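Memo to structure team: turn this sequence into structure tokens by end of day. - J.P.
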Amino acid sequence: MKESTLAQNKYPLSGKIEYNYNYNPRTSIIINYFTSLETMIKSINNFRYLGADVELIINNDKAKDSDKIMSILSHRNDRLITCNDLGEKRGYHNGACISNASDFLIFTQDDDLAPDNNEWYNECLAEFEKDDKLGMIGLLKGGINYCSENSSTIYKTAYCSWLATGPLMIRRDVYNMIGGWSEEYSQIGESDGVADADMATKVWLKGYKSLLLKTPAVNQWKRRFERGDGWGKKEIGECVNRKERIKLNRNIYRKKFKDLQADINSRITGAEDILQ
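Reply from structure team:
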């Protein structure tokens, strides 16, 4: 893995010799903003505990509140993209395209609150460092045989054929290798559910592993902490349009991977135990 370099410019237009810009941060954290401004701002403040080797990229898919967001993006490597309801996975991919990260991309939602420490991040780095074939880590949930009658959902540390956003961390070279987020799971502005499962599955097909990591440090992440639109888990789950789009997306996933599931499971250590 490359060591990052904090640049010192020789001929600064500003007159300041110390530019304090990291040309090669190790990790990019990419947030897609649409509803949860206050929660996202809290997370941005908490991400500062990760140090200067992490850059923040916000995709403002609401096309509003840019002044409020910029007021907190005070570091040289912080960046803001403004769009208008392109959808979550396109927001993540926008951020990935401009990332300077040498090693990792982290995708997280604006209503998930990051811990106010660096323990979870260091634990993820440790997992990647001890296994160069580990391609992706999820911090929420995962399982085996997504969208099949013999499916599973788990919430403990295990290798999984699918992972759910909340957040996801992936090697940047693996992200590029699998082609990033798949386009077929939504139209503009529709639910992207299942695109995260798709990405974790593609990691296995490229010869890498997807891991669900659940530790006390990871569990400090607060899922669906607070949304600006007043919706909670119940309201999100009852949204008819969202449910219909996810149903369609599951069918897309099932058709895409149904003939490959046995092969994928054969590569996963502990898959038989999960299915029992």
